Amino acid sequence: MQGKRANEPDIAEFISAIAAGNNAQLMVVACAATAGLTTLGLIAASHQTGGKLICIVKGIEELESSKQALNSDANHVEFVVGNAQSFLSNEYKLADFVVIDCNLENHEAVLEAVQNNREKSTIVLGYNAYWKDSWVWSRLNSHLLPIGEGLLLMRVAGKCANGGGKSGGHGCDSRKSHWVVKVDKCTGEEHVFRVRSPSGRVVKA
């Protein structure tokens, strides 16, 4: 068990790598409490992609504790206070990378908000996913990865992918893609790939 733990990737680094590898430009993280390592990982990704990072917290207490926890790194985050479901349905429906803390009381509703009326394809990750209502995610072609306290990964197609935009149009990518998860039998490590067609190009997370 100890050996398996040693081979598990750090969840913050894993999320950061996926965000950076997919050149995320508008990242949104919805926190259940104080922003921590996951947000730090996204800050690192934003430095690589030049993207913007939004952190949604539920109250002023969480806002102040998050700024204190992140210290000077808080300057690289735009904090908003309020309901994550509402923000993701309106102000941040153009987000291309969304991270949700499944300890949020209404994390299922937040997920539903991410699914609806997306202007562009969105990568969605849910951390602290063990012991939650994973069926809500699994029916949406998600993958539950044994990283940290459970990490759910899925991709929501935007209007372009659903035929809402013309091939080659601004901001649209007509190529379909899907996730492939491979396990190294020797080390037990998980490798996540995004496979695009028809070109067949593979992007490794």
Strand order of the largest sheet: 3-2-1-4-5-7-6
SSE pattern: HHEHEHEHEHEHEEHEEE
Biggest sheet character: 7 strands, mixed
Provide the helix percentage: 25-40%
Radius of gyration: 17 Å
Give a verbal description of the structure.
With 205 residues, the chain is of the alpha/beta class. 32% of the residues lie in helices and 26% in strands. It is built from 8 helices and 10 strands. It has helices at 2-7, 11-21, 37-49, 60-70, 84-89, 107-115, 134-138, 160-164; strands spanning 26-30, 52-57, 78-81, 97-101, 122-127, 143-145, 151-156, 176-183, 190-197, 202-204. The strands form 2 sheets. A 7-stranded mixed sheet has the order 3-2-1-4-5-7-6, sandwiched between helices. α2 (11-21) runs parallel beside α3.
List the topology elements.
Elements: H1 2-7, H2 11-21, E1 26-30, H3 37-49, E2 52-57, H4 60-70, E3 78-81, H5 84-89, E4 97-101, H6 107-115, E5 122-127, H7 134-138, E6 143-145, E7 151-156, H8 160-164, E8 176-183, E9 190-197, E10 202-204
Helix pairs in contact: 2-3
Primary descriptors:
disordered N terminus; disordered C terminus; alpha/beta; globular; 8 helices; 7-stranded mixed beta sheet; 205 residues
